[in-house]
Amino acid sequence: MATKRPGDTSSSSGPQSCPSTAVRPTDTRQPGAETQETLVYMQCCGQEAPNLTERNGHRKIMDRNHQGPVFVPQGRTERVWTHPPAPQQTTTPTIPSCPVSAPYSFWSPGSVEMDEVMAAMVLTSLSCSSVVQSSPQSQNDPLPGPSSGGGDMGCAGGDMECGGGELSDSSSSGYWSWDHGNVSPAPSPSVAEMDSSPDEGLHMELEQGGELHTAARSKSSFRGTYRCLWPSCGKVLTSSVGMKRHVRVLHLGSGSEQSPREEDFYYTKISCEAPADPSPVSPLPPDPSPISPLPPDSSPVSPLPPAPLPVSSPHVPWASFGSPLSPDPDSGLQISSSGSGSSRPSSGPESAPGQHRPLSQSAPSSSWQIQTDHLYQASTPLQVTMTSCSPAPCCWTPPTVSNQHSHHNAQVVTGRCRSVSVGEQWLQQNSVTNRLTTLRAASPSLTHCSFRKGRGEAKKCRKVYGVERKDQWCTACRWKKACQRFPD
DNA sequence: ACTGCCGGGCG
DNA sequence: CGCCCGGCAGT
């Protein structure tokens, strides 16, 4: 947690949005984790922007506000990259640069879309270094799997950074996962290999795609490709028509109510003209680096794979889950909340643990999931943003957890915040729906909450119910003992 | 002044 | 043990 890199900090530069937040994420991560950042991508206003991209030795960190990229000294980056930290995120496997294997095999060659996608992918990768990423996986399994690792970030503004990460972890599937997931899958391949033959991976793809690959290289300049912005999907297609179809069929559903035009909102055109320069080219966040098709510079970069998680970097929250790296014990806290995010609605703050694997962490994660689950279709981004903003992840978590009276260990940091917001809500509303509300509401409060001082804020039965309704107090309160219902 | 809770007492 | 309350300490 503690380790931060200057660069990350810079991210905070993203001015206002949530300075504090920004920092944390970074912190959470381990140094190695940083790498992950690369993977993360942010979406803004529908567009995705890669938070980080490595290029020419510099890592660019997109400003949350998107204002400007920050550069981090390569040195660090490389290190990270070099070692495929992959392990960190268990969830996201990095694709083995070494293509050889299997990963690709997954695809079901059969579908036409696949082909298109593949082709697009290849091309993209070629032209844009990064591209490789996920597409392949996404195709196969759009969401899921790997996604966990990925950053989801749908967040709207740059703010989200953290959140994004979480999302991915937690449920992830979420939105952005695609990229990351894909990329990372493979922890395996040794870096060296990757370096040596990054292209091969591509070739593999090419096979399916057909000549594309070759052509792609030669062409190097595409007019443009279209990338699906759907949360968990990262497909890249060369034709807008195809993309529309993709969006409609896979995401909107053929019959969906969505207006015909709707698809336009779910994909973005990517122009990859710059053959050489990946960076600009790839809007795609997905940092493919893992695959790093592009031979050019990539040498070190390619290894990126580790990056998958990186996403989090921006997001503090993530850090906590820190996913991969360390299974946080702590996680319990967040986990609970996040974990079941969706499930929990009703009550169970406690149960959560199941999911989290990585997430463990905190609130943010939880928030993410929730969003994901509920908002999935709607407006994830917004919420995300919120989350990220919230200064302390902890805050989030707690609320969720606490709601139910269950008191977890989680308390640790969170303590008060949750109790406050939660408590009230709990009282007033037990309904599940509230939770979402809570989160939102909480977020602001959370901000404040960072650390509770004392009882002042923590609401106990007395505050909640008032003396008049003493009968509703928990027994402990009635007996003037430590409150059991709203423990600190 | 309120509140939260420990410590202790009573039945 | 359940129930209550005196009293301390933090706000």
Automatic annotation (TrEMBL):
Keyword line: DNA-binding, Metal-binding, Nucleus, Transcription, Transcription regulation, Zinc, Zinc-finger
Region ranges (Disordered): 1-36, 132-202, 276-308, 320-369
A GO MF label: DNA-binding transcription factor activity
Keyword 4Fe-4S: no
Protein's cellular compartments: Nucleus
Pro residues composition bias: residue spans: 277-308
Gly residues bias spans: 147-166
Start-end of Polar residues biased regions: 358-369
Gene Ontology biological process terms from the UniProt entry: regulation of transcription by RNA polymerase II
Residue span(s) of domain C2H2-type: 226-256
SMART domains for this protein: c-clamp
PANTHER family: PAPILLOMAVIRUS REGULATORY FACTOR PRF-1, ZINC FINGER PROTEIN 395
Protein name (database record): Zinc finger protein 395b
Gene (UniProt): ZNF395
